[in-house]
Predict the 3D structure of the following.
Amino acid sequence: MAFPAVLADFAPTLRRGGLHLSTFCQLPDPNAIEALAKTKLDSFIFDMQHGMFDEAAVLAGVAAASLEGKPAFVRLPVDAGGLASRVLDFGAAGVVCPMVNTVADAERLVSYIKFPPIGARSWGPRRAIPLSGLSAPGYLARANELTLAIAMIETRQALDNLDAILAVPGVDGVFVGPSDLSVSLSGGATLDSAEVASALDHIAARARTAGKIAGIFAINPAYAVDCATRGYSFIALMQDAMFMQQAADGAVAAVREKAA
Ligand code: 3PY
Ligand code: MG
């Protein structure tokens, strides 16, 4: 069975800035991805930072999502090095990189995601080529445009360096981690600092001014709507396990209310 060319238009569409609803996947079973891929979610972020994804799960998960015509990002640590280009070879649409706090962090991220002259990605896009619908030379010519380097802004230091991070060539966008940002801004006191809310408008505005993608994690739909109003277009709505637990609790409650 041939893969649909899910990478062909994805990054250009995301860059145009219409509302894009992704979600974090922490459960590494390709059957779970397959089920989620049949929903109206636009894409997935496989979580190798806090989730249970390993390389084999990314490999299987990208295939499961692709067969439903959906692209997948991978979140992996800034020091994951060559693993970043490896998941792109597996067909990931991009990398969402946590704790990008400095220009040096951003440059390191870009070096693994982009081919020269922007970065130093090594050639070997085994599954990325069929997922792009391009020939090998065609993929080389467009890969830097088709794969996304997204820098997470989730510390005070990142906030201080925001414009410089956004200005790094090859950084396609920023993505707010509201919980870590709150932990950082409050000195470890809270996951829900009021300072985060005021930083949100600033981050989205600076990203837009730089012509780059503004992304964020939203813990619930109301938060996602608020973020969209503030100018975020790339929103990771909740997580796979949250969807499962909330749907189960909602269904159980609906029965108990009536059948008690
Ligand atoms: C955060 O809120 O810190 C995140 O990383 C969201 O995934
Ligand atoms: Mg975080």
